[in-house]
Amino acid sequence: MTEKSKWELGRPQGKWVTYRPEIKVLDCTIRDGGLMNDHKFDEKLIEAVYKANLEAGIDYMEFGYKASKKIYSPDKFGTWKYCSEEDIRKIVGENKTGLKLSVMADAERTDYHQDILPKEKSVLDMVRVATYIHQIPVAVDMIKDACEKGYETTVNLMAVSLVKEKELDDALEVLASTPVGTIYLVDSFGALYTEQVRDLIIKYLKFARSTGKEVGIHTHNNQQLAYANTIEALILGANMLDGSFAGLGRGAGNCPIELLIGFLHNPKFHLRPLLKCIQEYIEPLREKLRWGYDIPYMITGLLNQHPRDAMRFMEGDNYKNIVEFFDSMVEEE
Fold first, then answer.
1. What does the domain layout of the chain look like in residue ranges?
2. How do residues 55-86 score in pLDDT, each as one tens digit?
3. 152/294 Cα distance (integer angstroms)
4. Cα 151 → chain centroid
């Protein structure tokens, strides 16, 4: 790729005072937020989030995972770790609305052949396959399975901040050759800076557009860059954007969907229903779930590490001793 063509590929798409109608917004509140409470959300909260998404004009709502009960015991995890057809239909009925429904299926952690039904038997619209670099062969089979069953699909390549460039190029080449609809850039650890997001989005667009696919972005807020990085990606041409109510998500959380809606200028989106749901259902969870930017999450983001250590630290009695946590993490380096 020449420098000129690289620049043209990464050229801002559209004007900030207008909107790009092909942009789609996906709410991942229940799926990513479920990582903070083992997916044990009250049914009334799920109904409230669904209703708010409908009224706000959001394009997709992700309910949770299609996790294997052989790996994840139902005694430990809540309903939305498994997203059975029956449980989803309790909330949405036949979902005769414009809001599309999705679930996430982790490579090597999903009994996808049996647990993901043919589309004609399901109220779901999209299956999002999440994979690490070493799981690509399984992910490719999962993508093909979901597409053959009639679903829209995305592939979310996780922990990309740890992947070497040659391996990433090889992975993107393979994924671009599958029938997947969207290839997601995922900042799993909240470690990426905006300059890195820019270079990666240009790379993803090169592979995706060569086979007619879209690019998506899913960010975490460890360094308070989830929103900024999402905006950078969409300006450059990413058309699938993830966000969550008040940023509710694992650890430092995700790009707040209310910020995203405010930026997009698309008149089909309405902010008030999101704010009402956040006020009445999401914010009351904060004291217990304690998601969002905090220094321990910043530290793991700076170190490009999974936030699990920070999450354990935040749950302990000594959670205010951030210097001790910092020293323990630096010693591991």
1. 3-289, 296-332
2. 999 999 999 999 999 999 999 999 999 999 99
3. 35
4. 18
Query: pTM value?
Result: 0.94
Q: How far apart are CA 180 and CA 207, in angstroms?
A: 12
Contacting residues for 102 by C-beta, under 8 A, at least 6 apart? 26, 60, 61, 62, 63, 124, 125, 126, 127, 128, 152
- For 205-252, write each residue's pLDDT tens digit: 999 999 999 999 999 999 999 999 999 999 999 999 999 999 999 999
- At residue 4, the pLDDT reads 47
| pLDDT value at residue 19 | 82
Phi, psi of 214 (to 5 degrees): -95, 165
Q: What length does the chain have?
A: 333
Q: Which pair of structure tokens corresponds to residue 188?
A: 């799993």
Q: Which residues, given as ranges, of the chain have pLDDT below 50?
A: 3-4, 6-7
Q: Can you give the C-alpha Rg of the chain in angstroms?
A: 19
Euclidean distance between CA atoms 104 and 106, whole angstroms? 6
Q: Which residues contact 93 (CB under 8 A, 6 or more apart)?
A: 123
The fold of 3-289 is TIM Barrel (3.20.20)
